[in-house]
């Protein structure tokens, strides 16, 4: 892999992670722009290292590194989940951190169209599904939850 391609893949991961981070930052969540960007870039770097080793004649399988990223990022995500009595907060932020790592891996493999679509889809889910949750919570007659249960779904 040429240096230019390495840089392009890192920049693509930076843009994707940054886009997710901006969405979380705009909603005043605990993990924002820097966290999501660093997670995406780090996942990309780890994956690029394994790709480089295999490309230079080494043995191994880059997808094994991706598997370790999936497992390891769970610990970071667990740090943003808070329990207060029956209320649980931070699940969406933890899931978005996990998504940032996935975007970094997509970028590392050079799947740029998939990266763009996945980034847009995750932002869409975080933005518009939140509005759907709020709408359902405010309309209990239409099958929504009571306001007292609102924190369970944040």
What does this structure look like?
This protein is mainly alpha-helical and 154 residues long. The protein has one domain (3-127). 71% of the residues lie in helices and 4% in strands. It is built from five helices and two strands; from the N terminus they run H-H-H-E-E-H-H. It has a two-stranded antiparallel sheet with strand order 1-2. A hairpin with a 2-residue loop joins strand 1 and strand 2. Helix 2 (33-55) runs antiparallel to helix 3 and helix 2 (33-55) runs parallel beside helix 4 (91-108). The radius of gyration is 18 Å and the shape is elongated. The termini are far apart. The relative contact order is 0.15. Residues 147-154 have low confidence and may be disordered.
Q: How much strand content do the residues show?
A: under 5%
Strand order of the largest sheet: 1-2
Helical percentage = over 70%
SS content category: mainly alpha
Outline: elongated
Oligomeric assembly? single chain
Distance between the termini: 42 Å
Low-pLDDT segments, ≥5 res:
147-154
Order of helices and strands: HHHEEHH
TL;DR?
The chain is mainly alpha-helical. The protein is built from five helices and two strands.
Outline the secondary-structure elements.
Layout: H1 3-26, H2 33-55, H3 62-78, E1 82-84, E2 87-89, H4 91-108, H5 112-138
Antiparallel strand pairs: 1-2
Helix pairs in contact: 1-2, 1-4, 1-5, 2-3, 2-4, 3-4, 4-5
